[in-house]
Design goal:
2 domains; Arc Repressor Mutant, subunit A; Nucleotidyltransferase, domain 5; 15% strand; alpha/beta; five-stranded mixed β-sheet
Length: 227
C-alpha cells in the first residue's frame, strides 16, 4: 500500500481585508521528490506566476486536498464573541484535515505550520478535534521544511489571491489587503469617507481600522479630542 504524507498551512492571517484560507493536502510519499524537483516550497518564496504554474503540478499529484475559507465577516464576528484568530485557525485546520480523513486519505504523517508561539500546543489542540488519531506534528517554518506543507501553502495562497481578485472586481483597487499596503489603506479611508463605515470585507477587530479613523480625524465614541 502506498504511504501517504500530508501538510497543512494557511494564507491570509495578517491582512485587514479579505478571507483567511486554510489548506490540507495529502500525497503519495513516493511523489515528494518529484514535487521538490518541480520547485514546490513555501509560497512566500515564489512569485505569483510561479505559484500559479505549480497549482496543476500539485493537484495532479495530490491524493486529496481540502480548503477551508473564513470570510472577513466570519473572522470579525468570531473575535467579537471572544474567539481569537488562533482558535479559529485550529478549528479550520481540524476541519480541513477531517475532510481528508473522511475521504479516506489518512496520512502516515501530517505536518502543520504552527501559528501558536508554542507549536506543540497548537498541534495538540488540532489533534483533539480530529475524527481519527493521526501522527501530526505542528512546527514553525514547516512550509519551508516539508514539501507537503509548502504545497498546501501554495494552494491556500493562490486561492486567497483569486478571492482577492474577485473582491477587486466588486470594490475596485483594494491592493493586497495587508495593513502596510498603501493601496489598501487608501481604499479603506476613501470607503469610510464616503460610506461612514468600513466595507464588509474588512476585519473590524484589526487595529488598522482604528489607526485609519485617527488619520481621518474621526474621534472614538466618547472622546472629545484627538491625542
Amino acid at each position: 500500500m502506498t504511504a501517504i504524507v500530508g501538510g497543512a498551512d494557511e494564507a491570509g492571517r495578517g491582512p485587514v481585508l479579505g478571507p483567511l484560507v486554510i489548506c490540507a493536502a495529502c500525497f503519495p510519499e513516493e511523489e515528494i521528490p518529484f514535487l521538490k524537483d518541480k520547485g514546490v516550497t513555501d509560497s512566500k518564496q515564489l512569485t505569483p506566476k510561479r505559484r500559479d504554474e505549480l497549482v496543476d503540478v500539485i493537484t495532479g499529484k495530490a491524493i486529496a486536498y481540502e480548503l477551508v475559507i473564513f470570510s472577513a465577516q466570519e473572522i470579525s464576528k468570531s473575535m467579537e464573541n471572544g474567539v481569537n484568530l488562533n482558535d479559529q485557525e485550529i478549528d479550520g485546520f481540524a476541519r480541513a484535515i477531517n475532510g481528508l480523513i473522511q475521504r479516506g486519505a489518512v496520512p502516515r504523517m501530517m505536518w502543520v505550520d504552527a501559528a501558536d508561539v508554542k507549536p506543540e500546543r497548537f498541534g495538540e489542540r488540532i489533534q483533539a478535534k480530529l475524527k481519527s488519531k493521526i501522527n501530526l506534528l505542528a512546527m514553525h517554518k514547516a512550509d519551508a521544511i516539508h514539501i507537503p506543507v509548502g504545497a498546501a501553502s501554495i494552494l491556500a495562497k493562490t486561492k486567497r489571491d483569486a478571492l482577492i481578485d474577485e473582491l477587486a472586481k466588486e470594490y475596485g483597487d483594494i491592493g493586497s489587503g495587508y495593513p502596510s499596503d498603501p493601496k489598501t489603506r487608501a481604499f479603506l479611508k476613501e470607503y469610510y469617507a464616503t460610506q461612514q463605515r468600513f466595507p464588509p470585507i474588512a476585519r473590524t477587530s484589526w487595529d488598522t481600522l482604528k489607526q485609519l479613523k485617527k488619520e481621518l480625524g474621526i474621534l472614538p465614541k466618547g472622546q472629545t479630542r484627538l491625542f
